[in-house]
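Memo to structure team: turn this sequence into structure tokens by end of day. - J.P.
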Amino acid sequence: MNKNLILFGVFIVALLVSGENCLLEEKVIDVVIKEETCAEFAENSTSETFATSVEIDYADQIDQILSDNGYSKSDIKSATLESGSYGVTSYTGTTDWIISGGITVRRVDGGGSAVTLLDYTSESVVGLLGQKKDAALTSAGVALLNDALADYLGGQEPVIEFTVNNGDVNPNPSQGDPIVFNWRACLRINVVIEQTVDVPEPPL
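Reply from structure team:
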């Protein structure tokens, strides 16, 4: 993890420049954690237009990220959305579906309107299988999610609704050949933690 590398580096420097009786002083450093939160979608449609919604407890997912890294919310200096990606996680059919549409996000807590987070155009379901394709995120979607992160740091518990709005499938699915696959959209967040460490005092 990034935090381990940073702390290990500080420890090594301390050993190299200090003697057995060296005085130490406390320093505050920034530890950067980069982790992902994901929304999973299960698609099964006989039409080229379909909508699939999933609610994500954003606060719970961030709490889990912090816990996995040995931190809590009170340790966070800042948290921002860094990037997004999407990819197909499972598909066992034979048709190479080509899909186009978009994914929206909406704050469930406190209400609010849905805004587009990303668009996908002429994507091959087979081609996305096992992949994590970088997504071009909209400014409106990024703003909504960064506001949710800020509210989380302020004590709120944001819940986000992700909705796939598919507008086209080629070839057209049917009752005899429905489009069935699972995929996910992931958001990479950048969390900065303030860490206090002991370092050798500089020589006089």
